[in-house]
Write a structure and sequence with these properties.
The protein has 215 residues and is α+β, with helices and mostly antiparallel strands. 32% of the residues lie in helices and 32% in strands.
Length: 215
């Protein structure tokens, strides 16, 4: 237990664990960020994002600063929970859960990145399943949203495979160039039939009080 409830939340599956992104765990991820392991081709992120910084030192600094700022704002109108993905005992990426006016809409958005060394073996799908379990089972969400550029085949395949439905297209920029964005939507009712019984949640009750989430 810590004095900050958001740090006590973690999610375990048969293959991996989502652990709250403490500074100690972020320090373990920093070498991957510095080495460019969060990057992919085609570029997967919309602007602006620190992971596109060309200088490794500046990239890590701005990446950490962004997380620190996000961790500092936690209230009923806006919150973001940051998790480090642990696979085979090692940090391999991040999985975030974002609530915007959650008390009104009960809608969450997810964001993630996975080290290049850990891709291609189902980790991306498993970490999304874990965060959806926290959202729907733990926090009482009614709907989860995600988006990815049209050429981000991996992310779009995960969304489609988990029962999301296409929710329109939009334009955004990456590296200052326009690109087409596919939006996705997953309702609680669509998630429920594929709910897994082997995903365990820890520390959720105190975190719900922190986020002012009512039953």
């Amino acid at each position: 237990m810590t004095f900050y409830a958001a740090f006590d939340v973690h999610v375990t599956t048969a293959r991996l664990e989502l652990r709250a992104a403490t500074d100690e765990l972020l320090e373990g991820l920093a070498p991957l960020v510095a080495a460019g392991k969060a990057a992919a081709h085609p570029p997967p992120y919309d602007d602006p994002i620190s992971l596109y910084e060309s200088d490794p030192e500046i990239r890590v600094q701005r990446w950490l600063q962004g997380i620190w700022r996000g961790r500092g704002r936690v209230d009923s109108d806006a919150w973001r929970l940051y998790f480090v993905v642990m696979f085979d005992g090692q940090p391999v990426g991040m999985q975030d859960l974002i609530g915007d006016r959650f008390s009104v809409h009960r809608t969450v958005t997810t964001f993630s990145w996975l080290s290049a060394d850990a891709r291609g073996n189902g980790v991306g799908k498993e970490m999304r399943e874990a965060i959806l379990h926290l959202a729907f089972e733990g926090l009482g969400a009614r709907e989860a949203r995600s988006d990815a550029f049209h050429d981000n085949l991996g992310s779009n395949a995960v969304s489609r495979g988990l029962g999301y439905r296409e929710n329109g297209i939009d334009w955004d920029t990456r590296l200052d160039e326009p690109a087409l964005l596919q939006r996705w939507r997953l309702t609680y009712d669509a998630w429920l039939p594929q709910r897994r019984n082997d995903i365990k949640l820890h520390g959720v009750t105190a975190c719900k009080r922190l986020l002012a989430i009512q039953a």
